[in-house]
Amino acid sequence: MAKLMFNTVTIVGTGVIGRSWIRVFARAGCKVRVFDQDPAQAKRAVDWLAADTALDVREGFIDEQTRAHTLANVTLHADLAEAFRGAGFAQESGPENLAAKRAIYSAMDKAAAPDAILSSSTSALDIDAIAGDLPGAARCIMAHPCNPPHIVPVVEILGTKKTSASVRQAACDFMTELGQKPVVLNFFVTGFLLNRIQAAVVREAFLLVESGVANAEDIDSTIKDGLALRWAFIGCFGANHLNSDGGIKTYFERYAQTYRDMIADLKNDAPAFAPETMAQIQRECGFKLGAENIRAFGQWRDRMILRLKAIKAKHPRP
Ligand SMILES: NC(=O)c1ccc[n+]([C@@H]2O[C@H](COP(=O)([O-])OP(=O)(O)OC[C@H]3O[C@@H](n4cnc5c(N)ncnc54)[C@H](O)[C@@H]3O)[C@@H](O)[C@H]2O)c1
After folding, report:
1. Regions of the chain short of the pLDDT cut 70
2. Residue-wise pLDDT tens digits, 130-170
3. Is 235 a pocket residue for ligand 1 (Cβ < 6 Å)?
4. Which of 54, 59, 180, 268 is the most buried (most CB within 10 A)?
């Protein structure tokens, strides 16, 4: 295995996101030192890793040796300072709460080696508000994943106002080495890129259900069997580019006014997100409740995305 930029990383927080990050770093060959303020939670994360990798072996996604190497790279630590021993990079995935993140970052800044990069998974907070006033602000950065990062590669990168250009570059290069896809924000904006785009689609999808234009299954089919099939390979702008033989410029010469009219018709109000709407969506989309059903649906999602990623890797854009 090629030498990585950082051999040893620290995971702080081992919930849904932290446990998935453990897998990202460990499968790439990093020694992963894991800390959670609740040791039982850290143990559950490692148990999840053992079970999920076992499933991947059974279904032929990885071999037993890869699984063994991944698991052997992970150690649990009851003490934060101990978890930071030898680490050049840390990924924080604690609770999404400014006071909690500030306290965790302050502790990490003290525990980490002076040149270690401190990266946060925050999905909505400004990294500058979390870490901008710390002595080590220049080595602090956000690396916001899409859940779960061991399956979905995109990671949004944003520094504090004091983060050095070299730290930003190192975070991007390391994420690339790990098999993630870093995308860089130039400044903070609510929702960053991913959740901002997602919110625009979610808002319209819910408003279409609430106003009775179509049933929920047909609205989701428009995405699953229409827009997202193209988006998975060519993105929004690529789809625009291919909608006209003359490319994106010609497309919008023809359709800009149509888009302006449609955009003018979109309502500004947020959906009500009422319980009855959720019940309707569940029913019309055939969603099953219960932990087992949701876990099975999630596992199917993960495996389908892995297959799609394999196709994308095998057939790069010409
Ligand atoms: N869940 C998602 O879909 C998602 C997606 C992207 C990013 N994120 C972000 O990732 C972060 C973690 O989210 P999650 O869904 O995994 O949360 P979670 O509640 O599942 O996990 C948080 C973990 O942090 C631990 N923790 C609490 N205080 C701590 C401390 N002082 N030191 C160490 N560990 C501590 C908890 O014990 C828990 O295991 C959040 O910032 C969230 O916004 C979440």
Report:
1. 1-2
2. 999 999 999 999 999 999 999 999 999 999 999 999 999 99
3. no
4. 180
Probe target for ligand 1 pocket from 96, 106, 108, 150, with the most ligand atoms within 8 Å of CB? 96
How confident is the model at residue 1, as a pLDDT? 64
Domains of the chain with bracketed CATH: 8-184 (3.40.50.720), 195-287 (1.10.1040.10)
Q: What is the pLDDT of residue 197?
A: 98
Among 10, 19, 24, 37, say which to mutate for ligand 1: greatest number of ligand atoms within 8 Å of CB. Answer: 37
Residue 269: the pLDDT is 87
Any ligand 1 atom below 6 A from CB of 95: yes
pLDDT of residue 188: 98
- For residue 94 and ligand 1, the question of a CB distance below 6 A is answered with yes
Counting Cβ atoms within 10 Å, is residue 318 exposed (0-12), middle (13-18) or buried (19+)? exposed
